[in-house]
Specification:
Layout lengths: L2 H23 L4 E6 L8 E6 L2 E7 L6 H15 L6 E7 L21 E2 L6 E5 L2 E5 L14 H9 L4 E5 L7 H6 L3 E6 L2 H13 L7 E5 L2 H10 L5 E6 L4 E2 L10 E2 H13 L2 E11 L2 H4 L3 H10 L4 E3 L15 E6 L1
Parallel strand pairs: 3-4, 8-9, 8-11, 9-10, 11-14
Antiparallel strand pairs: 1-2, 2-3, 4-5, 6-7, 12-13, 14-16, 15-16
């Protein structure tokens, strides 16, 4: 084993020991095993989804393909006793806009870098919720692991009506609907909203527990502001860093640094009295040093009443990568 491989194995072993309580408890089967520099492996993020893992490898990891293959095999060897069967690899550019819409073939390859092929979709557990994930369906798997504790905490607040913007596969919606909330999910992607419907069905929820709108977030907020019956006790904002527009459908491009303040302002217009806003971002410029909270305060004109959120889970160790706030204006 060369020096780089030995260092990776050492970091992985220490990281896995830190995650032992998650694995042993069994309530959560999707979690982060390696969190980049937070676990001493810059540019490498390893997420476990039941019997399989996905290794996200960024350019700043400076790893050759041979080294990545070695790391995948080391991961499989170390975690096989804990039930791991496969390791998939997703190469990432820090700025995906430079790819011009193209993506590496491996993102959709059914064969893993190490281990045996997994089904096209798997079901993972997150406390009382179940989610469908897809390991070789592009850059994402359908579930963002960072917000695990936030999903549970928001459901524990039991808001009657919830607006879930940038809903993606509706992972926030499932635990909320399970405790009786009526959730309105909004996303520009019909495919992801259909995935969201499957997630709610996986949790035994009736179709009437949620609504699904294929719309731009600003378009829906403008519609809701005009209709008094469209008021919500919780609004969830978890937008991407950037998103392409669709001129044909009238969807404008999104850039978090430029557009987030207007999003916050628009969300306030559809809040029920005493309602709260959950705002999150993985945009680097907003994720560290209280930047997201300052953006919210500036957008509101004064500091809101901040509500407590749980600490980041033990498997999310890199600082300045994602931020979240909960507030009542």
């Amino acid at each position: 084993m060369d020096f780089a491989a030995a260092r990776f194995a050492e970091s992985l072993d220490a990281a896995w020991r830190r995650r032992a309580p998650i694995f042993e408890d069994g309530e959560v089967t999707a979690y982060r095993v390696l969190d980049g520099p937070g676990d001493g492996v810059p540019g490498v993020y390893l997420d476990r989804y039941g019997p399989a893992a996905v290794m996200n490898v960024y350019e700043d990891a400076h790893l050759s393909q041979t080294s990545v293959t070695t790391a995948a095999q080391l991961t499989l060897d170390m975690l096989a006793p804990a039930g791991l069967e496969a390791v998939y690899v997703k190469p990432f550019a820090r700025d995906r806009s430079r790819l011009g819409g193209r993506s590496p073939d491996e993102l959709r390859a059914a064969a893993p870098r190490a281990g045996r092929k997994q089904p096209e979709s798997l079901v993972v557990q997150e406390y009382e919720s179940r989610f469908e994930v897809r390991l070789y369906d592009g850059h994402s798997t359908g579930l963002f692991l960072d917000h695990r504790e936030h999903r549970r905490a928001l459901s524990q607040r039991r808001p009657p009506r919830v607006l879930n913007l940038f809903a993606y596969t509706c992972a926030f919606a499932a635990p909320l609907a399970a405790v009786g909330a009526h959730v309105t999910n909004v996303d520009v992607s019909a495919r992801y909203l259909e995935w969201g419907r499957r997630n709610l069905a996986l949790n035994g929820l009736e179709p009437s527990a949620a609504r699904f709108f294929r719309m731009d977030a600003f378009e829906f907020l403008a519609y809701a502001a005009r209709h008094r019956e469209e008021r919500f006790h919780l609004v969830i904002l978890d937008p991407p860093t950037f998103a392409a527009g669709d001129r044909r459908r009238g969807v404008k491009p999104w850039k978090a640094l430029d557009d987030y303040p207007a999003l916050v302002e628009a969300a306030l217009r559809v809040l029920a009295p005493g309602g709260s806003v959950f705002a999150a971002s993985n945009t680097r410029e907003l994720a560290g040093n209280g930047a997201l909270a300052r953006l919210v305060t500036k957008a509101l004109g004064s500091a809101p009443a901040w509500q407590p959120l749980p600490p980041w889970p033990v498997d999310v160790r890199e600082s300045g990568r994602v931020a979240a706030v909960l507030f009542t204006p």
